[in-house]
């Protein structure tokens, strides 16, 4: 284990896309973010913190 190179962030941040293939996961990630944004807005507007 001592010969394994430690990651140098942020220089090595691009390597996540070698594991998370954008062709497969980009749209599901965007849809999940959209659902999260809609849920956050629904909560904020339901407690009365939206526009007047």
UniProtKB/TrEMBL annotation:
InterPro entries the record matches: Antenna_a/b, Antenna_alpha, Light-harvesting_complex
Localization, per the record, is: Cell membrane
**Biological process annotations from GO:** photosynthesis, light reaction
User: Can you name one GO molecular function term for this protein?
Assistant: bacteriochlorophyll binding
The UniProt entry, under Pfam families, shows: LHC (PF00556)
The Antenna complex alpha/beta subunit domain extends over 13-47
Primary residence: membrane
Query: So which domain of life are we looking at?
Result: Bacteria
Sequence intervals crossing the membrane: 29-51
Q: Which UniProt key words apply to this protein? A: Antenna complex, Bacteriochlorophyll, Cell membrane, Chlorophyll, Chromophore, Light-harvesting polypeptide, Magnesium, Membrane, Metal-binding, Transmembrane, Transmembrane helix
**CC annotations in GO:** plasma membrane; plasma membrane light-harvesting complex
| Task performed by this protein | Antenna complexes are light-harvesting systems, which transfer the excitation energy to the reaction centers.
Put simply, this protein is called: Antenna complex alpha/beta subunit domain-containing protein
Protein species of origin = Allochromatium vinosum (strain ATCC 17899 / DSM 180 / NBRC 103801 / NCIMB 10441 / D)
